[in-house]
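Every protein is a chain of amino acids, and every chain bends into a shape of its own. The fold becomes a row of whole numbers, each drawn from a learned catalogue of backbone shapes. The protein below has been through that process, and both of its lines are reproduced in full.
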Amino acid sequence: MPIRSSASGSLRLAQVQQKVAELEREVAAAKEQERQLLREKKASEELDKVRQAQGSIASSYPNTQAGIKARQALQATVASPSLPLLPSAFDVPYPKK
């Protein structure tokens, strides 16, 4: 009888060790996911700052190369509907004499 008890005890220990290893993998995956989410959040915040700067340049200097490039960059990233599309110098008709 002690042999059987010992064998079932070992089986339980193996099961516990397997469960511990599984939980450790889950914890590691959750930590990696958290790190990735933090990187995504930081990148998104940085991108918002860049878009704000581009909007400022586009509206402050609309008839300059920098202003035109900033407007084009904003229009290329229309992913955010809160950013208005600004008219360019090319959209304004040339006055006829």
